[in-house]
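Structure first, sequence second, as always.
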């Protein structure tokens, strides 16, 4: 009678154990880098620079680069968009305030910053690995791809910026907001006595 795990169970157990340990270690390092966005983005810029240098020296893989550019553009749109699109939620009420008298609702991204960073970093790593396989090096006239990507970028960003203007939201908040409320009488007297 066979065991509950099957015939090849002893061979797969060490691999499963190794995969679980690797997954835990990887998640541990991801968790440790979460509160350090500047360092994360500099690391991603380094990975992107390595990829660009690889494509430059190999003089190929333009289709891979074009696909990477389209993917990054798609991620950027998700990063700049609210989680609930006001155009789609007109019947239920807009998620973002459109008038000064509306209730304040904070901007919540469709794609959070950490997931945005992680997806871009993975995309550059996958594209880098793809540059080692000649099957992905399709011969194309790269200036046409580059021009088409710029046109696509400009049209997409124009639409996104018009959407931001129409619904009056800004997807960036740099630093902690400071409110200049009224000072108390004691604080004003201390300021004048100095």
């Amino acid at each position: 009678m066979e065991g509950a795990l099957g015939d090849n169970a002893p061979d797969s157990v060490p691999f499963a154990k190794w995969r679980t340990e690797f997954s835990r270690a990887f998640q541990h390092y991801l968790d440790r880098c979460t509160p350090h966005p500047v360092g994360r983005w500099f690391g991603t810029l380094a990975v992107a620079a390595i990829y660009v240098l690889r494509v430059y020296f190999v003089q190929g893989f333009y289709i891979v680069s074009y696909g990477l550019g389209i993917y990054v553009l798609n991620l950027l749109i998700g990063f700049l968009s609210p989680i609930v699109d006001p155009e789609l939620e007109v019947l239920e009420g807009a998620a973002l305030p459109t008038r000064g008298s509306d209730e304040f609702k904070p901007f919540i991204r469709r794609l959070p910053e950490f997931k945005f960073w992680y997806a871009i970093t993975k995309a550059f790593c996958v594209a880098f690995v793809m540059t080692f396989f000649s099957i992905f090096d399709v011969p194309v006239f790269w200036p046409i791809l580059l021009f088409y990507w710029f046109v696509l970028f400009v049209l997409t960003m124009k639409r996104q910026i018009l959407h931001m203007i129409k619904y009056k939201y800004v997807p960036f908040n740099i630093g902690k907001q400071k409110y200049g409320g009224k000072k108390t009488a004691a604080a004003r007297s201390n300021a004048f006595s100095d």
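Margin note: The helical segments are 9-33, 37-58, 62-80, 113-130, 142-167, 185-193.
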